[in-house]
């Protein structure tokens, strides 16, 4: 009879530990989801704010008009570091400096996204886990 009680105690403890691990996993996943949403909102705000700035700088320093769409494409291409060619060459230092700052911020944003995603996966792998099975054959309690 005491073997059954001990087994039930062990099973209850394993279940309790499993629940703790699942809660820890959900906290990490929740944190990552919140962080990714914040980064996406931040990225969107940067684009929305910079569209009129780019239009003004191109008109003022490059002497040509561009549309809102062209400004948005320029910003997204620069932040994502995919490259562009339709608005080049820039002849003014303010446009060159803006391009460099956008490239640097794009790389930083990329690493923030990557770090947030990787933290979730690493935390799930490192978190303590209860054993999924026990082999009690030939075992004395």
Short description:
The chain has 141 residues and is an all-alpha fold. It has three helices and no strands. The relative contact order is 0.15.
Please describe what this structure looks like:
The structure is a single chain. With 141 residues, the chain is mainly α. It has helices spanning 2-62, 68-79, 93-126. The protein is 76% helix and 0% strand. α1 (2-62) crosses α2 and α1 runs antiparallel to α3. The N and C termini lie close together (12 Å).
Low-pLDDT parts are none
The biggest beta sheet reads: none
Shape: rod-shaped
The proportion of residues forming helix, as a percent range, comes to: over 70%
> Overall pLDDT, averaged?
75
Task: Tell me the span between the first and last alpha carbons.
Answer: 12 Å
Query: What is the count of β-strands?
Result: 0
β-strand percent reads under 5%
Structural class by helix and strand composition: mainly alpha
H/E topology pattern = HHH
Our count of helices gives 3
Rg: 27 Å
Descriptors for this entry?
141 residues; mainly alpha; 3 helices; 76% helix
Lay out the secondary structure:
Layout: H1 2-62, H2 68-79, H3 93-126
Helix pairs in contact: 1-2, 1-3
